[in-house]
């Protein structure tokens, strides 16, 4: 169930982080989230566990044990704490009732194939839960028999049992595998593991202080108690308390501790155990018994077979063959749970389990042949004096629909049988669960939509940030007006393609587009390498700036390195007319500018000022495949490890005579560093 996989995800995220879970699920090839009531293939969970072992570098048994401990806490957090606490008053009773819990959950949640839930333990498909049988030993330890269809998951059991023992009964336990016998007593479960469970109470600070009292005090107190209690009453009280399981666990107690428990519990008086009183003869006739318990059967073990001695009236009505006393019960029924052979000896081993019988189709009357088979659920009671087994049961029906399918009525079930109430209550429960399923599915759909929305938002923001500086774009998104900003010093670069007009006249438009796109893609990558801001492109003109919109003291060096990269990159772009590498002119100038957003429709971040004009003049008065510097740009670069040659005075349109320079190379950076290559 999704409940299991969700728990596994929660464990990994909580203890190892989201990144580890993402890596784990990608390697396992599974989805990110799971629906609680959805049934998933076992292979998904097995893959997750296998990949977790490899990624975390931890053996499988340790991963499974940690998962078991966490799963117990996960169940409690999911609202099942109270249900678990009420299973038993000690660890033995708790384990003994696990199968009954699974049986209840199967009844409650499997009325629809798509409406299911697992509660405790490992990965049932169609509530194919593991089974447990526990045996007490004389030394206070227990043997826990674990049966499962799924091999290799037994190490989850110690994790869950240990967590439950410590939380509910305040005892620490150790569990070790002592045997893995061949399957003889069961027919369906493929793995049978026997654990030895030993227990140690966890004492509080106060209790430890009491037990650490002086030996003389303990001896005197024990002697005084013995004088007050006669030996016979003492032994009787000890046996009663042991039989009732008043201890939180079947651990052997010291003589003194038992006495102290008697005095404390009885407030100074001897605590006597409950003893039932039985009538000398049974005050109920056979007819009343068979009518009052309409679904019951008594069978013996003659010649190893289960022969019917007695049956309730309702089960006789449904299975007429039972009216013939002495017939073999296994001819008419098969045992669905626990999956054991139909023999008294096998049934006795699982006497504390709930048994589910199913009618055999070939032995049913013709009227039943087209209906679903009837299942019975109940308990086995061994009657030693009669050497017979009593099966007290009820129809295993979950909904009114199932009742109608078998053409039965509420009246067929005894008034005292809670199956009546459960069928009616389950109708309401199913409606609630269906609503819960729908809500969970909608929640998952919303989560996926939200994730896609976030991805689209990132794409939109990336596109917006490519057009405008990030802080400017954020201001516009918030509806704020972007104020123009003055930058006292920045470096501006212009470039264009030599003889671009002639190339356009002799080529198809698509060739021009392909050429410019090839060139600009490389230039755009270089803006990221050298952290300069691309202002715009108009035709073959490419404009960048350093120190705007974020002022930096190294603006001139960044733009100079970017320009050197442009010259190298242009050599790799082919002229569609001549087939030779294209040539570009580059001009650079340093000075103050005013920057701001212009317009509301398709807004652009523009630069204004004479610095822009001079940078453009440096480009237009430049030389092919050369980087033309103004005197102010030269002043910023002359002590920065660049090789620069003097061009001299030239006449610049609109500016008169200007002293200019050529940037040759960076003395300390390699070509790969300039181009941002590995």
From TrEMBL:
CDD domains: CHD (cd07302)
Gene3D superfamilies: 6.10.250.780, H-NOX domain, Haem NO binding associated domain, Nucleotide cyclase
InterPro entries reported in the protein's UniProt record: A/G_cyclase, A/G_cyclase_CS, H-NOX_domain_sf, Heme_NO-bd, HNOB_dom_associated, HNOB_dom_associated_sf, NO_sig/Golgi_transp_ligand-bd, Nucleotide_cyclase
Pfam name, any one: Guanylate_cyc
EC number: 4.6.1.2
GO biological process: cGMP-mediated signaling; response to oxygen levels
Main location (coarse class): cytoplasm
Cellular component GO terms held in the UniProt record: guanylate cyclase complex, soluble
Keywords: cGMP biosynthesis, Coiled coil, Cytoplasm, GTP-binding, Lyase, Nucleotide-binding
Top EC class, one word: lyase
Domain Guanylate cyclase: 491-619
Top-level taxon of origin: Eukaryota
Places the protein is found: Cytoplasm
GO MF, any single term: heme binding
Coiled coil: 425-463
Family that this chain belongs to: Belongs to the adenylyl cyclase class-4/guanylyl cyclase family.
Protein name: guanylate cyclase
Origin species: Sagittarius serpentarius (Secretary bird)
Source lineage: Eukaryota, Metazoa, Chordata, Craniata, Vertebrata
Chain's gene name: Gucy1b2
